[in-house]
Amino acid sequence: MASEFPTLESKFVPDDPIHPDGAKFFAEVTDMLDGEPKDPALVEARLSGWDELIEKIASELYRIGSMLLGEGEETIQVIERVVVNNDISACNDHVDARHSSRLLLGAEAIGILAKRDANALAAPADEESGPVSCIEDDDLDSVGVTPLELEQMLTGPDDHRLRDWLESLSPSLRVIFVLRAVAGLSSAEVAGLLGQHGGPKAENWTPDAVRSAFRLALCSLASQLIHASATK
User: Fold this and answer.
1) Span 135-171, pLDDT tens digits
2) Domains of the chain by residue range
3) What is the 3 state secondary structure string of 73-139?
4) Cα→Cα distances 153→8, 22, 72, Å
């Protein structure tokens, strides 16, 4: 059966709706960002559902950030900076704002990981001589993982197994898997973030190198699932 998410530019885990009225809230709030004085009562009315929208986005960002940086105060501080610094006035809609916040999160997390270890996110010196992936395609079906299985691994009662597996990966593979499969960023976007914020030698990351690394991560995930099934 063909994969429901056949290309790298598709999300492997569909995003939950932010809020039934998310698009309406976003339009109403961004309409107020024109620099003109506003009636306080009108502002309060417009923002009545905004807190729930921001909380939803922040919760999603924390889940992604904790996979990259670990649980704790540092990740919380990163999320706070992303929420504050995301320029929603430059976004077309609430979906665009969500995507923009994930790009900011990726940049922040990659910068922190590069400071922890200057060479942790370096690109392979020679892509052709690097390790060979067990698959040639970049979809979940190639390794026998369905989008539903991946979503259950992320949100189900056994999510600690996924986190343990992520911690076993190299920093670069972990970043690429999380930003591609969980955050839904494209290979070109991930390559750009790594090249700009990943420290020395990270400028050699290309979309093709990201695709190759992502396939390696998918192979590792498949091995993890096979091992988990065998030990049940």
Assistant:
1) 555 655 666 666 666 667 766 676 777 788 888 899 9
2) 22-230
3) HHHHHHHHHHHHHCCHHHCCCHHHHHHHHHHHHHHHHHHHHHHHCCCCCCCCCCHHHCCCCCCCCCC
4) 20, 27, 21
Q: Burial, 38: exposed, middle or buried (Cβ in 10 Å; 0-12, 13-18, 19+)?
A: exposed
Give the count of alpha carbons within 13 A of 6, CB side only.
3
- CA–CA distances in Å: residue 129 to residues 62, 132, 162, 176, 210: 36, 8, 29, 19, 15
Residues contacting residue 56 through CB under 8 Å, at least 6 positions apart: 18, 19
Q: What's the pLDDT band for 78 if we cut at 50, 70, 90?
A: very high
Structure tokens at 156: 């189900």
